Amino acid sequence: MDYKILATKYGTPLYIYDFDYIKSRYLALKNAFSARKSLVCFAVKANSNLSVLKFLANLGSGFDCVSIGEVRRALLAGANAYKIIFSGVGKKDEELKEALQNNILMINLESPAEMLRLENIAKELKKQARISIRVNPNVDAKTHPYISTGLNENKFGVEISEAKKMYLYAKKSEWLQPYGIHFHIGSQLTELAPIIEAANIVSNIMSELKALEIDIKFFDVGGGIGVIYENENEISLYDYAQGILGALKGQDVTVICEPGRFLTANAGVFLTKVLYQKLNSKKRFVIVDGAMNDLIRPSLYNAHHGISVVSKQNGEISNENSVQNLNEISKADVVGPICESSDFLAKNVDLPELKNGDLLLVKSAGAYGFSMSSNYNSRLRCAEVALENGTDRLIRRRESFEYLIALEREFI
Ligand code: LLP
């Protein structure tokens, strides 16, 4: 792909997603579960662009949503309502109501209080609610503490004993129908053992529920499959699926998984332009036009994203290793224009001498990149482009200043 041409055509900074890659990841995951009924529900929070969702919906994907905004996006993108699940620790009444009215597959409950709210709303609407309960299996996912969710110290889900009580209550209720069981122990998981441990714990709960004539149809293992940003271990999909199916011990359920990052992280790059170089007595800074408002993962989690220079000769990228062969390589921090010391995209990376107009690619940016972006410093959120079958197309226009101030202007 000629990134120089894309930069000229769409401007920078720019998110670029390879849809063919997303498709190959989706199919690989579906294939791993082919021995079973399975439903892949893409975690919309990872990349909520409507064209990404539409592309996945056309492949048959379902969607894991954590706000009614995400549910609306999925429906607008053409998702089958019966493939949408609605999760999240704090859903509002209006959100629960709309989700029910839209006949989505099920609502993932995260507290007894929420279950009672939903029961009331279902009663008002005279519509039975299909529910799933997010169980917190108290398993250490061994990932970054900010994205670890399966321990009792985390705010997510309910403890096992509480979950059982909730299922018993729901079974008796005229307005609640136990339908699924859910867990999600964390994100960017690079070890399989904690996922399988959790799957076994939750599968055992399901067997106990069955003995109480509570019939669970969907076994939802959450998302969290890690990807390679630098040199991480990637879990084998075969082992992942086999481990989960093994935990199910032949129980007749549909397996749901909710991958976000796995499908889109390495489909995306963030293209940014060098503005200046600056040297002080301690450091070399490469100042670019992209910033923490566009891609916050380095600032927020100290996350690593590989950096490549778009080569000057032919517009193709040179990878991180071949950069070593260029002249005048030295360590630099790649920083944005925002007024925060934490505004960096990479630290201490080997880069050749760069000048205004040179292009850098920030890799693995297709998940939690644009979807976590903001307008901090009154910066306009950037454009997004899709690559499919060798062609490029715009899938989100760059924001304008008028758009930025639209909700304030009338009040001055
Ligand atoms: N299902 C549930 C219930 C979740 O909470 C999440 C992510 C997913 C699925 C998708 O997880 P994935 O497959 O993408 O790991 N902003 C952070 C990640 C936060 C993830 C929150 N939950 C980051 O940039 O690393």
TrEMBL record:
Catalytic activity: meso-2,6-diaminopimelate + H(+) = L-lysine + CO2
Residue list for modification N6-(pyridoxal phosphate)lysine: K45
Binding-site residues for substrate, renumbered to this chain: R261, R297, Y301, E340, Y368
Keyword NAD in annotation: no
GO molecular function, one term: diaminopimelate decarboxylase activity
GO BP of this protein: lysine biosynthetic process via diaminopimelate
Orn/DAP/Arg decarboxylase 2 N-terminal domain segment(s): 22-265
Cofactor: pyridoxal 5'-phosphate
Record CDD domains: PLPDE_III_DapDC (cd06828)
Highest rank taxon of the organism: Bacteria
UniProt xrefs under InterPro entries: Ala_racemase/Decarboxylase_C, DAP_deCOOHase_LysA, De-COase2_C, De-COase2_CS, De-COase2_N, De-COase2_pyr-phos_BS, Orn/DAP/Arg_de-COase, PLP-binding_barrel
SUPFAM superfamilies in alphabetical order: Alanine racemase C-terminal domain-like, PLP-binding barrel
EC number, UniProt record: 4.1.1.20
NCBIfam families: lysA
General function of this protein: Specifically catalyzes the decarboxylation of meso-diaminopimelate (meso-DAP) to L-lysine.
Subunit structure, as described in the record: Homodimer.
HAMAP family hit by this protein: LysA
Family: Belongs to the Orn/Lys/Arg decarboxylase class-II family. LysA subfamily.
Listed name of the protein: Diaminopimelate decarboxylase
Gene: lysA
